[in-house]
């Protein structure tokens, strides 16, 4: 039973890793001895965070814009050339868009769905050779998709593309888990609730009190909360788990809605 949660020396790629939940997850892996790569379209933010985290462990920046096919392909080629293998892929890069149903623009739909659903599929596809090299029956490789509780039940907000894309990511998680099990690649998803981040800042300013009242645990998520679930899904403790969706929301989606 020793080392069930050990992730030391695992090579971990976190997309959207320069801020928010991505930064929380990247930091958790660094502090627990993993070799972490963070990717973000913001080169300056990506480099700055990697430099900061490198003071506490192993972290390097691989800045690419994953909103387009060129960025996805570029990141995959760079990882292949520089590392050749990958133990854990955390598909976290994402976007949201809010507009009334009658006025929701196609541009907002495309931006959100492409980054939240299309990018995780094609990045995983292009990184399969590296994941397969790292995988074995005793130590499977991992894909961790960061979805949302908005993919589990409809939110109150006018974020139609976001909820649809996250629901799609949950089904994609299950489908890929079924297909990749034979390759010793486990695919699971985390469905976060409300965490304090740039993406949720405006929402929390508007309805933060209502969110806390609706959350059985009565608080927002912390870096330890989301980092702990990600570490579990990357470690030997979860080796018999694939196609799973884990809400990390203080009970909001399971008992509070």
What does this protein look like?
- The protein is α/β, with parallel strands linked by helices and 257 residues long.
- The chain has one domain: NAD(P)-binding Rossmann-like Domain (Rossmann fold).
- It is built from 8 helices and 7 strands, in the order βαβαβαβαβαβααβα.
- Helix 1 packs across helix 7.
- The protein starts with 10 loop residues before the first strand and ends with a helix.
- Strand percentage lies at 5-15%
CATH class: Alpha Beta
CATH superfamily: NAD(P)-binding Rossmann-like Domain
Mean pLDDT: 95
Give me the strand/helix succession.
EHEHEHEHEHEHHEH
Summarize the structure.
This protein is of the alpha/beta class and 257 residues long. 46% of the residues lie in helices and 14% in strands. It has a 7-stranded parallel beta sheet, sandwiched between helices.
Which keywords apply here?
7 strands, Rossmann fold, alpha/beta, 7-stranded parallel β-sheet, 257 residues
Topology, please?
Layout: E1 11-15, H1 20-31, E2 35-39, H2 43-53, E3 58-61, H3 69-82, E4 88-91, H4 106-134, E5 141-146, H5 160-180, E6 185-192, H6 201-214, H7 223-234, E7 245-248, H8 252-256
Parallel strand pairs: 1-2, 1-4, 2-3, 4-5, 5-6, 6-7
Helix pairs in contact: 1-7, 3-4, 4-5
């Amino acid at each position: 039973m020793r080392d069930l949660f050990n992730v030391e020396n695992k090579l971990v790629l976190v997309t959207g890793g320069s801020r928010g939940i991505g930064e929380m997850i990247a930091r958790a892996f660094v502090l627990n001895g993993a070799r972490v790569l963070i990717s973000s379209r913001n080169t300056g933010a990506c480099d700055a965070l990697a430099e900061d985290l490198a003071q506490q462990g192993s972290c390097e920046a691989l800045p690419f814009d994953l909103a387009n096919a060129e960025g996805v392909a570029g990141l995959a080629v760079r990882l292949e050339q520089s590392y050749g293998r990958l133990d854990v892929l955390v598909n976290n890069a994402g976007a949201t868009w809010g507009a009334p149903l009658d006025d929701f623009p196609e541009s907002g739909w495309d931006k959100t769905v492409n980054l939240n659903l299309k990018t995780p599929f094609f990045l995983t596809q292009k990184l399969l050779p590296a994941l397969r090299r790292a995988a074995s029956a005793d130590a499977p490789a991992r894909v961790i998709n960061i979805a949302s509780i908005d993919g589990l039940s409809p939110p109150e907000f006018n974020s139609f593309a976001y909820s649809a894309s996250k629901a799609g990511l949950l089904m994609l998680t299950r489908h890929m888990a079924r297909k990749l099990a034979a390759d010793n690649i486990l695919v699971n998803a985390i469905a976060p609730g409300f965490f304090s981040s740039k993406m949720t800042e405006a929402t929390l300013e508007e309805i933060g009190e209502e969110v806390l009242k609706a959350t059985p645990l009565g608080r927002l998520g912390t870096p330890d909360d989301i980092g702990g679930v990600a570490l579990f899904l990357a470690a030997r403790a979860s080796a018999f788990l694939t196609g799973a969706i884990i809400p990390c929301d203080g009970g909001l989606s399971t008992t509070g809605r």
